[in-house]
Amino acid sequence: MKQPQWVRFGELIPCRSAFIDAHTPGSSEKENFTIIGGGVSESPDQHVHIKATPGFNIGAAGQPPRCFNSLHSHDTAEVFFVLKGRWRFFWGETGKDGEVVLEEGDIFNIPTRLFRGFENIGSDYGMIMSILGGNDAGGGVIWAPHVREAAQAHGLVLGETGRLYDTKKDEALPDGEFEMPLPEQDWLNALLRPDATTVVKHYVARYWDMMAMAAQGAVKVIGEHGLLIDKPGFEVDFLSRHSPLAETLQAQKDVVLMVMRGHWAVNWQDKTEIFNPGDTVWLPEGTNYSLKVTASGEASLFRVTRTDDPAGLTWAGEEA
Predict the structure, then answer these.
(1) Cα torsion for 281, 282, 287, 290, to the nearest 10°?
(2) Residues 6+ apart with CB under 8 A from 112
(3) What are phi and psi of 11, to 5 degrees?
(4) The whole model's pTM is what?
(5) How far apart are CA 35 and CA 106, in angstroms?
(6) What span, in angstroms and rounded, lies between the C-alpha atoms of 283 and 264?
(7) What gap in Å lies between CA 116 and CA 79, rounded to an integer?
(8) How far is Cα of residue 140 from the mean position of the Cα atoms in its chain?
(9) Residue 11 and residue 138 in contact, taking contact as beta carbons nearer than 8 Å
(10) What is the torsional sign of CA 241, 243, 244, 248?
């Protein structure tokens, strides 16, 4: 049987050349982290901490104040929660269709067929944690045309294989490989253009609302019967120190625990480890485990569980 694995927040290894906007002013200081799975990095320099395939990918983005991630779209689900700081998420081909501000602990289940970007608007280095649908999330990033143009003006070219080439380092497309084609106009015309009210209603859950509900038990945040109704290939629950839990839990499918606040003892097979904010724990299918908060004060975590649903996402305005 596979054994649990984990990554400590303080041991995360960043990549600053992960994406096509790595040289673009305003984006050049962002850091990308791939925690579980292959992630979606376009750079061979990206470090992967746990090379497991639990049905989804876990990653993170760290950015100093006023640093932004450029507009892009995914073919599979993309979920973020704010670990540190204050973040503005914006969407649309030019980023002006709508925006929402997320505080620490808030979670955003972003629809597919929607260009999205995000900016740290706090006063300190900020961190958002991510969940991407599917075992293989690579090759699924589509950049807004103006992002591609800006990147090329600053020396970065994206090949059709999804790999970046840095002309500032005398890199060039290999013989026989062409540049990644820009999205066709018909595809751009079919993009979703929801307003902020619609997005917040269907795809954002606030931390303190979840904390209030968690006293009654684990809060189903994302899932068929969740606060954010969806079937993206995984479910997300929210737990607090006040959530009543069985003495022994079983990961009937692969489970990942992502600590938001406090110190949590996770026990399995007579082994106990203490996990802290920003730590990520993978519990393979079949693992029997227990959870306990080890200190006073605020304590919360997100629990991600693989499902058998496709790794896509159903927009709330459409028929399932």
Answers:
(1) 20
(2) 73, 74, 75, 76, 77, 312, 313, 315
(3) -105, 5
(4) 0.94
(5) 20
(6) 15
(7) 12
(8) 14
(9) no
(10) negative
Is residue 110 within 8 A of residue 132, CB to CB? The reply is: no
Question: Buried (b) or exposed (e) across 220-250, using 16+ Cβ within 10 A?
Answer: bbbbeebbbbbbbbbbbbbbbbebeeeeebe
Place of tokens 């303190």: 208
Q: Which domains does the chain have, with CATH numbers?
A: 5-203 (2.60.120.10), 210-306 (2.60.120.10)
**What whole-number percentage of the chain has pLDDT above 70?**
96
**DSSP per residue, 222-273:** EETTSSEE--SSEEEEEEETT----SSEE-SS-EEEEEEES-EEEEETTEEE
Q: What is the pLDDT of residues 90-140, one digit of tens each?
A: 999 999 999 999 999 999 999 888 999 999 999 999 999 999 988 876 556
Q: What are the C-alpha distances in Å from 296 to residues 156, 181, 240, 282, 292?
A: 49, 54, 12, 25, 11
Residue owning tokens 């990549």:
15
Residue 135: beta bridge partners?
Answer: none
Please state the φ and ψ torsions of residue 208, each to the nearest 5 degrees.
Answer: -75, -25
Proportion of the chain in helix, strand, coil states, percent, rounded to 5: 10, 40, 50
Side chain identity at 179, as an amino acid letter? Answer: E
Q: In what order do the strands lie in the sheet with 228-229?
A: 5-7, 280-283, 255-261, 300-306, 234-240, 219-223, 228-229
Q: Half-sphere exposure of residue 235, counting CA atoms within 13 Å on the CB side? A: 20
Angle at 237 between CA 31 and CA 256, to 5 degrees: 55
CA distances from 34 to 46, 130, 215, 224, 248 (A): 7, 9, 32, 27, 30
Place of tokens 């992967």: 48
Q: Is 188 helix (H, G, I), strand (E, B) or coil?
A: helix
Contact 47, 124 (CB under 8 A): no
Q: pLDDT, tens digit, for every residue of 168-196? A: 999 999 999 999 999 999 999 999 899 99
